[in-house]
């Protein structure tokens, strides 16, 4: 049987729940869902959102800045273990990382800081990136030693290459497409050894984009960015069968400024 993983930045789960998220969740065939930018404490969510029928949930809200960030992992199968954070004194309370263990697989939801050039927000992003790269290396090493695979899903807030955003020429000095950010994402792939599953299956581009600004006609013109990734260890990537962006049919039907990104894998065994 195949195994399906979806990642989605919900841009505020309380708002998304009233605009189509609940209906999407009811209809999805995914086995695992990683959410980002939940922006709510679990008890602020309606019960059918907080504990949806048929799902096991791990919520990791930000306790450092309430109403900001927040990630979650939803699994059909009850996890063997749940963890919030990656051992960072600065970032473990900021609602940016959580992971669960399933048989033979560790699944993580990531919301990397967005940054803003020449501000403390960019400095925060750079500190996060430095710490997180080391964690990704150790996570992969531990998984290999245990005979496990890893998937880190989420909003990485970096477009890696020119084919990953429509207007790349005008964004070369903006956060999300800075040379040093793109180089860091290259290190995730080359140095830490993870595989960008969507790009593995769709090597040419452009896109498929996963985020479109609400400003102007970005969605209608498909002037988007590909910043939501499903990154896996090589063994899991080799089992990837298909991947796609669940782009809404029209602007009014969107329940977030991001679209879910879904990958299907062969039987994980």
UniProtKB/TrEMBL annotation:
SUPFAM superfamilies: DNase I-like. It comes from Streptacidiphilus monticola. This is Exodeoxyribonuclease III. Keywords: Hydrolase, Magnesium, Metal-binding. It comes from the Bacteria. Residues 7-258 form the Endonuclease/exonuclease/phosphatase domain. One of its GO terms (molecular function) is double-stranded DNA 3'-5' DNA exonuclease activity. Belongs to the DNA repair enzymes AP/ExoA family. Its cofactor is Mg(2+). It is an enzyme of class 3 (hydrolase). Its EC number is 3.1.11.2.
